[in-house]
Design brief:
167 residues, mainly beta, six-stranded mixed sheet
Length: 167
C-alpha cells in the first residue's frame, strides 16, 4: 500500500465509524406517533433512583393529570433560545412535553445542569440534543413539592433556562 492511499483509507475509516450520517439518527417515533427524522421521543420517570430514558410511546399523566407543553424556540438567528413558557406550575403525576419549535439550532433539556434544585433531588437523564422541528422530550413529574430548574445546555450561558414548580 502506498503512502498516498493512507489519508484516503483514514477518511473511509472515519466515515464508517461515524455511520456516514445515515439512518441511525432517523429511527424514532414522536409523541404524536408520526414518524419523523431525528431523535426519538425520550420518556423518563424520575424517582429516588432515576430510570434510564427509553424511547417509545408517549408518557401518560396520572388520572386527573395534565400534559403541559413547553416549546424550545430559537432566538437571535440561532445564537440563543428560550423555553416558552419559561416558568411552569404542575402537579405530581402531570407530564411535561418539551417540543422543538423550529430547526434553526440545537436544543435539549437538562435538570442536571440546572442551578438551585432542592436538596436530595436526583435529576432525570438529560434529553438528547434535538435538531428537527417537532421532536419532543416527555417527562412524568414524580417529584416532591418545590421548584426545579433546568437549562438548554448549548444555550444556558445565553439565558435559556426554565423552572418547574410542583404544587
Amino acid at each position: 500500500m502506498s503512502i498516498r492511499k493512507l489519508p484516503i483509507l483514514g477518511l473511509m475509516v472515519l466515515a464508517a465509524a461515524c455511520g456516514g450520517g445515515g439512518e441511525a439518527e432517523q429511527v424514532a417515533t414522536t409523541t404524536d406517533t408520526s414518524v419523523q427524522s431525528g431523535m426519538p421521543t425520550v420518556t423518563t420517570t424520575p424517582s429516588a433512583t432515576p430510570a434510564a430514558p427509553t424511547a417509545g410511546a408517549p408518557v401518560t399523566p396520572d388520572a386527573g393529570g395534565q400534559v403541559h407543553e413547553v416549546r424550545m424556540v430559537t432566538t437571535q438567528n440561532g445564537a440563543s433560545g428560550q423555553f416558552e413558557p419559561a416558568q411552569l406550575t404542575v402537579k405530581k403525576g402531570d407530564v411535561i412535553r418539551w417540543v422543538m419549535a423550529d430547526a434553526q439550532a440545537v436544543h435539549n433539556v437538562s435538570f442536571s445542569q440546572g442551578q438551585g434544585n432542592p436538596a436530595g433531588f436526583t435529576p432525570p437523564a438529560d434529553s438528547p440534543m434535538y435538531t428537527q422541528q417537532g421532536q419532543s422530550y416527555e417527562l412524568k413529574v414524580d417529584w416532591n413539592t418545590g421548584t426545579y430548574h433546568y437549562v438548554c445546555v448549548p444555550h444556558a450561558m445565553m439565558g435559556m433556562t426554565g423552572t418547574v414548580t410542583v404544587q
